[in-house]
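F.,

This is the one I mentioned.
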């Protein structure tokens, strides 16, 4: 892991950009400098690691005493996308304009995107845990499709917060039953692009004995700011 830049932000959080082979990432650590629990924070469906809402969540979580890391995994952010992915995205735009069903198109590129991303997240986790400023346990926050696959594959994840927005492939809907770590699921009740009942069915399918659903009115990007406080309290219960 090679750190390429660093800056101390106004809230005291240290922000460092890094590369790990072809993987670009960002690490935020709290001002105290003491070893901190780690939170892996992902973005949805290939958005970049510099997406403003993700950065705001990461900084807030880091200020609460956590090391927070995100990466642009394969096919995400500015990293190259396959010709098949680009065709699927073009097909999706066409289908949405025409009002046609889109589930099969989503399946064709979200499924491979998740499968290809998980090994890079695990490689990043290995490298991060060698950093003297980072300690276990490990939490996850972000895109639900990726989080399900990662939590099944990675036993070091002790708790996870999922955003219900975004398509979840069939394979991950089946894997939800294997999830047993504590969960916090955030659902926007009026999310225009994601069927509410599908998210509720997934919540019911998770195998965790401790799972909490927070539902708020509003569209896809309308998650209330106070959910950051609740998210940090959830992490505090399970990672500190």
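My design for it:
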């Amino acid at each position: 892991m090679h750190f390429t830049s660093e800056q101390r932000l106004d809230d005291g959080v240290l922000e460092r950009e890094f590369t790990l082979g072809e993987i670009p990432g960002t690490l935020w650590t709290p001002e105290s400098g003491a070893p901190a629990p780690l939170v892996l924070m992902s973005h949805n469906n290939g958005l970049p690691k510099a997406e403003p809402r993700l950065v705001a969540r990461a900084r807030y979580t880091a200020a609460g005493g956590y090391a927070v890391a995100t990466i642009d995994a394969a096919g995400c952010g500015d990293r190259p996308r396959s010709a098949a992915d680009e065709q699927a995205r073009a097909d999706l735009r066409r289908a949405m304009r025409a009002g046609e069903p889109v589930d099969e198109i989503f399946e064709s590129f979200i499924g491979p995107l998740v499968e290809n991303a998980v090994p890079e997240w695990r490689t990043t986790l290995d490298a991060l845990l060698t950093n003297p400023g980072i300690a276990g346990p490990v939490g996850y926050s972000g895109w639900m499709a990726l989080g399900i696959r990662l939590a099944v594959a990675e036993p070091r994840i002790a708790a996870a917060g999922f955003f219900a927005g975004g398509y979840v492939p069939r394979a991950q809907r089946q894997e939800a039953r294997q999830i047993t770590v504590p969960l916090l699921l955030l659902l926007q009740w009026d999310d225009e692009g994601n069927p509410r009942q599908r998210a509720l069915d997934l919540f019911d399918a998770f195998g965790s004995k401790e799972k909490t659903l927070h539902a708020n009115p509003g569209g896809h990007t309308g998650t209330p700011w106070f959910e950051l406080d609740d998210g940090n309290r959830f992490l505090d219960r399970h990672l500190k």
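Helices lie at 52-63, 83-98, 103-128, 144-153, 170-175, 196-205, 226-239.

Talk soon.
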